[in-house]
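Bit of a strange request maybe. I'm writing a small parser for structure token strings and I need a real example to test against, not something I typed by hand. Could someone generate the tokens for this chain?
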Amino acid sequence: QVQLVQSGGGSVQAGGSLRLSCAASGRDFSNYVMGWFRQAPGKEREFVSAIEPYGTNTYYADSVKGRFTISRDNAKNTVFLQMNSLKPEDTAVYYCAPSVLSGSWRDAESYDYWGQGTQVTVSS
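Reply from user aminoacidic:
Good idea to test on real output. This should exercise your parser:
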């Protein structure tokens, strides 16, 4: 059974930092792009960041570029999202997943086996 278990997140004031983790079990995803998405209330799920299998390239939404850093530890089948200089508009539920379906790594439709979601709340 494939599972992606997320940890981290919580509530912080603007300017603070949080680190999200996403640990996979049941299948080795080291050869897949891993991504982070987020969904705010009343909005669609949006792309945040993605990382290629061996960390060769990383990708970020313009809204988080320079503030968020994605990384992965293939030995532990785990991907991380370090979030610095957080803003109230970063408030959302964050999800991780591997890009195992066809399509662009920017599109949620190319991902499957989503994590359970982690709430991030940033207050002003």
